[in-house]
Fold this protein.
Amino acid sequence: MTNISNTTALDSAAEIINRAEYTLDDMETLLSIDDREGMDYLFGKALEETQATVGESIYFRGIIEFSNQCEKNCFYCGIRRDNPNFKRYFLSEDEIMECARWAQENNYGSLVLQSGEDSSEEFVDFVERIVKRITKETGLGITLSVGEQTEEAYRRFFDAGAHRYLLRIETSDPALYARLHPRDHSFEQRIEALRALRKVGYQVGTGVMIGLPHQTIRDIAKDIEFFRKEDFDMFGMGPYIIHQDTPLASPKLIEKWEAEKDDIFNLALRMLAVTRLALGNVNIAATTALQAINPVGRELAFNAGANIVMPIITPKKYRDAYILYKGKPCIEDSAGVCKGCLSKRIDSVGRDIGWGERGDSPHYKERTSVDAL
């Protein structure tokens, strides 16, 4: 691990940052910076890249967590199928539309519809139907995050009006992926699902967790290389946070995580910064997981490369049942409180909010114009 803590090392980092394209070793070096001076330099360069490639604005995506029912059993996730310790729910169309109309009235440009994974025909029909209603009645941009589906289902959602899709890979390393999932979960199927989304025409998003057990900085550098190779348009990444009702929540791992959480947080910020520097004009979210570890986590993310934020607009009575990890912030707040809080956070770092704008990925626009040639 490289420790950049003196003038010579900073000069070396500056030389790497100014390269047209990073090697795997370059990214590992930048991800390994762990002193204050070096990190401040890295974050400052990432902020400059953000301003140059995607602009000054932060874009709101009002997130509606419309169901916590899930057919998957991932070892790290609080809403995994076999966790019996909370109440399952599924919002009605009218409840979702009430949230969507609130977002429209409050000048949000986009929504995220997120749920546990469900590949049933009934679920696909429901998502297609609600996307059509939101598109027709509000005109809001729509990001879906509803897991692995068939290419036909992705096309139905797209034709109904969804234009962005977030499907996190969590790690691009097949061996580590296998440690995080039961045997009936397929890494190759996840990859094929991401490629199907691109084929259909979505702005394609993915992301990883940072600080997983057995994960190395080299693995995280390979994640960014994977992002670049697959040519994705947007990213939602954050620190791994243990949920007590999962197989990964052993006393030993909880103790280790507690001892290392500040380092994990700083590594997550470096991941945002290096992703911005390596990939340029993509969209990067400041995730709530950052704020779960550090009260100003999202502000720090805005200064390290993030340009998207997803305030929760899920009805308050359901929020404490959509807990993917412990300590999730904002579950006691109303949609209006979340809006006001995030607005103040963004103002505190001197950034603008793109009210009423979809804030689509410039990378997607560039990619599709090239593909059309």
About this structure: The longest strand covers residues 57-67.
